[in-house]
Amino acid sequence: MKNDFGPLSIGQIGLFISKLSQVYEDALKNNLRILIHSKNDAIHKTNAILLIGCFEIIWLKRSAQEAFDIFKNEKILSYRDASDNECKYECKVSKYNEGY
């Protein structure tokens, strides 16, 4: 059984940033907060953190470190490849957003 867990595609990330940027601009104009919710399991939380981090880096022009400081106490899974073999590396969300 494969237990791969990889980052979202660039298309999924782009769509999220596009939609959130519209909501973000409306929230700024109307002095509103944005709440982003995901399921409470580690896979969904990890992907939500990836998406929020990408938004902060691309749209808000924050560094990867700034984007992930807020999540430093969260349990974030490492991504792995889709092979049946043992995964010999960790692809962390923070490294993914730093461009590694």
Structure description:
The chain is mainly α and 100 residues long. The protein has a single domain (10-98), classed as Protein tyrosine phosphatase superfamily (Protein-Tyrosine Phosphatase, Chain A). It has four helices and no strands. Helix 1 (10-30) crosses helix 2 (42-58). The radius of gyration is 15 Å and the shape is elongated. The two termini are 28 Å apart. The model has no long low-confidence stretch (mean pLDDT 84).
SSE blueprint:
Blueprint: H1 10-30, H2 42-58, H3 64-69, H4 93-98
Helix pairs in contact: 1-2
As residue ranges, the low-confidence spans are none
Sheet of most strands: none
Order of helices and strands: HHHH
- Quote the beta fraction: under 5%
